[in-house]
Amino acid sequence: MYTRFVEPGRLALITYGPCAGKMCTVVDIVDQKRVVVDGPESVTGVRRHMMPVKRLSLTDFTSKIARGAREKTLRLALEKDGVMAKWSATAWAKKVKAKEVRSKMTDFDRFKLMVARKKRTAEIKKGGMKKTRK
């Protein structure tokens, strides 16, 4: 059964726009297609603004807040429930973080990665390490 409903307190990932890749929390529902989201800015860097639901990917995590809660109330609720820590532990969050790290690599970082991969492959072919399967 589907459980990721659009509701106040639902943690979401912004997928499009200037805040793409950042986490936010649904604070209020405007209509069928739009919601008011807030980071809070001190935690995730997202200011309170209205956003179409299409630009959000809802997560499984919620915090208990009232509709239209203040930023301070939201921040305290997120800390109390440990929502951001739970999110950081998920495979989805780790994948997003890895993608961000790869996109911010410099040319020299990519070169070092290539050299390390070659070294690892040579070590495996030589028989020094056992090949691990996923």
Would you write up a description of this structure?
- By secondary structure, the chain is α+β, with helices and mostly antiparallel strands.
- The protein has a domain at 10-89: SH3 type barrels (Roll).
- Helices cover 40% and strands 21% of the residues.
- It has 5 helices and 5 strands, in the order βββαββαααα.
- It has helices at residues 41-44, 71-81, 83-88, 91-103, 107-126, and strands spanning 10-14, 23-29, 34-38, 49-52, 56-62.
- Strands 4-3-2-1-5 form a 5-stranded antiparallel sheet.
Quickly describe the structure.
This protein is an alpha+beta fold. The protein has five helices and five strands, in the order βββαββαααα.
Secondary-structure-based class equals: alpha+beta
How large is the share of residues in beta strands?
A: 15-25%
- How is the largest sheet built, in terms of strand order? 4-3-2-1-5
Strand segment tally: 5
Low-pLDDT runs of 5+ residues are none
- Principal-axis shape equals elongated
Please write the CATH class name of the domain at 10-89: Mainly Beta
Q: What's the CATH architecture name of the domain at 10-89?
A: Roll
Overview features:
134 residues; alpha+beta; SH3 type barrels; five-stranded antiparallel β-sheet; 5 helices; 5 strands; elongated; chloroplast
Task: Set out the fold topology.
Layout: E1 10-14, E2 23-29, E3 34-38, H1 41-44, E4 49-52, E5 56-62, H2 71-81, H3 83-88, H4 91-103, H5 107-126
Antiparallel strand pairs: 1-2, 1-5, 2-3, 3-4
